[in-house]
Amino acid sequence: MHRLIRVLAAWCLGWLVYMIAMALTVYDGLMSWIFQPILAAISSIVAVVVGLFVGLVFRIPAIGRFWRSSWFWAAALAAGNILTMIYGADWGLTETFTDSETGHQSVGLRSDVSLVSYFALIFAVANWPVRRADDS
């Protein structure tokens, strides 16, 4: 049950982050509100599956014990990535984007930084540490 709650929380958070990013970048009216939630759901599913797959590393006893020793590691990873997504452009982690139809240029958070932050946030939530009985 705990795993299901973490997976659902990670999916919901991924969907929300995607929708916020969409509203701030590519929103273009009614069509965005129709198709972007579907894309957000698909992106969140992919992010959660990748996060759970990468989380298999915690099956290695020493790494798993370290990760589960404190919730701090997951909280720090999640908070750091949220801060990066919010303030990364202010910190200079920027890229210039050009609209192919209008030629309009805008500056925003670098694509690689935004993707890594998104996946790392989902990873931290989907693999939130829960102490096991054999970790004492």
H/E series: HHHHEEH
The number of helical elements comes to 5
How much strand? Answer: 5-15%
Query: So what's the overall shape?
Result: globular
Helix share bin = 55-70%
Summarize it.
By secondary structure, the protein is mainly alpha-helical. The chain has helices at residues 2-25, 30-54, 61-68, 72-87, 111-126; strands at 94-98, 105-109. The chain contains 5 helices and 2 strands.
Describe this entry's structure for a reader.
- The structure is a single chain.
- By secondary structure, this protein is mainly alpha-helical.
- The protein is built from 5 helices and 2 strands; from the N terminus they run ααααββα.
- The chain has helices spanning 2-25, 30-54, 61-68, 72-87, 111-126; strands spanning 94-98, 105-109.
- The protein has a two-stranded antiparallel ribbon with strand order 1-2.
- The radius of gyration is 17 Å and the shape is globular.
- It starts with a helix and ends in a 10-residue tail after the last helix.
- 21% of the residues are buried.
Set out the fold topology.
Blueprint: H1 2-25, H2 30-54, H3 61-68, H4 72-87, E1 94-98, E2 105-109, H5 111-126
Antiparallel strand pairs: 1-2
Helix pairs in contact: 1-2, 1-5, 2-5, 4-5
Features:
136 residues; mainly alpha; two-stranded antiparallel ribbon; 5 helices; 65% helix
